[in-house]
């Protein structure tokens, strides 16, 4: 019998692995990326004909609003990551440059799927265009900045994404009751966020290899604190706006959203210590090795999305 899932890998081309053989990545001192780790491009597409419910997460408008707010911010943000890394690619060791190419392809695929997902959200009557415009306005502030400054911004946002991704895969209850197609979008994306979580930081180590330890730490830690606060604050603002479109008053929306984020299930509360690790002078994303979560998604989750025919 054929097994059908909500996603299919494009088998017209071999799965792309960023590392060939066992050559050195040529990483700068301080990298904790496992020597045998590689980035794999999974060209996955969720069914466009599937109209997920308006409140696709457990029939809960609050949970749905939070994830919709994050999804609406992703396409333009991922384009920023790609554009930022492109400026460093020609100066990288060959193996690390290949990793950047794989990272770029992963992010292009994420953008494609979240654009489609956001279109479904819009089809349910939500106005998410203002969220995209807000991201555009925030990123406009980076224009004219040194490329290392924008790289530090990317580190901060990739760190935030990696922690959310770890929680989504490590604690399946976060997506319990969610529409199967929508949940699979998030699990697939989370898998690749974990897989490439150290790439931007390794580019940073190479790009700033001639900086003093203090300058390197001060720059990335200060930007991490500022950008994460701004990004998180904007996601709350936008989720509240989506709840207002569902008929909640602003006071009701804020109370319910804060309870969701900080009390039950309380992802933000449970993530705080992990996020704060970026403020350590010795920080590297792969100091927390969670590669087993990649295998966790690739085996039971996909097989369980839809029953075998």
From TrEMBL:
<feature type="compositionally biased region" description="Basic and acidic residues">
    <location>
        <begin position="8"/>
        <end position="22"/>
    </location>
</feature>
<dbReference type="GO" id="GO:0016787">
    <property type="term" value="F:hydrolase activity"/>
</dbReference>
<keyword id="KW-0378">Hydrolase</keyword>
<dbReference type="InterPro" id="IPR016516">
    <property type="entry name" value="UCP07580"/>
</dbReference>
<protein>
    <submittedName>
        <fullName>Metal-dependent hydrolase</fullName>
    </submittedName>
</protein>
<dbReference type="Pfam" id="PF10118">
    <property type="entry name" value="Metal_hydrol"/>
</dbReference>
<feature type="region of interest" description="Disordered">
    <location>
        <begin position="1"/>
        <end position="33"/>
    </location>
</feature>
């Amino acid at each position: 019998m054929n097994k059908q899932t909500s996603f299919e890998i494009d088998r017209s081309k071999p799965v792309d692995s960023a590392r060939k053989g066992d050559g050195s990545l040529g990483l700068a001192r301080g990298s904790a990326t496992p020597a045998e780790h590689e980035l794999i491009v999974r060209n996955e597409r969720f069914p466009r004909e599937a109209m997920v419910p308006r409140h696709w997460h457990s029939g809960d408008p609050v949970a749905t609003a939070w994830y919709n707010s994050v999804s609406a911010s992703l396409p333009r943000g991922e384009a920023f990551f790609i554009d930022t890394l492109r400026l460093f690619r020609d100066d990288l060791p060959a193996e690390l440059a290949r990793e950047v190419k794989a990272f770029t392809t992963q992010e292009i695929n994420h953008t494609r799927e979240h654009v489609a997902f956001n279109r479904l959200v819009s089809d349910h009557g939500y106005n998410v265009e203002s969220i995209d415009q807000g991201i555009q306005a925030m990123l406009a502030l980076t224009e004219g900045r040194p490329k290392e400054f924008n790289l530090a911004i990317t580190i901060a946002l990739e760190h935030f994404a990696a922690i959310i991704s770890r929680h989504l895969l490590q604690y399946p209850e976060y997506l319990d009751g969610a529409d199967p197609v929508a949940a699979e979008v998030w699990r697939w994306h989370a898998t690749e966020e974990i897989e490439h979580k150290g790439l931007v930081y390794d580019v940073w180590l190479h790009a700033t290899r001639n900086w003093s330890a203090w300058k390197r730490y001060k720059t990335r830690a200060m930007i991490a604190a500022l950008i994460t606060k701004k990004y998180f604050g904007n996601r709350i603002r936008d989720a509240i706006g989506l709840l207002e479109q569902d008929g909640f008053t602003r006071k009701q929306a804020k109370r319910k959203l804060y309870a969701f984020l900080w009390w039950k299930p309380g992802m933000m509360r449970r993530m705080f210590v992990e996020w704060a690790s970026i403020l350590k002078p010795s920080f590297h994303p792969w100091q927390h090795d969670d590669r087993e979560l990649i295998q966790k998604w690739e085996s039971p989750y996909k097989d369980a999305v839809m029953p075998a025919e």
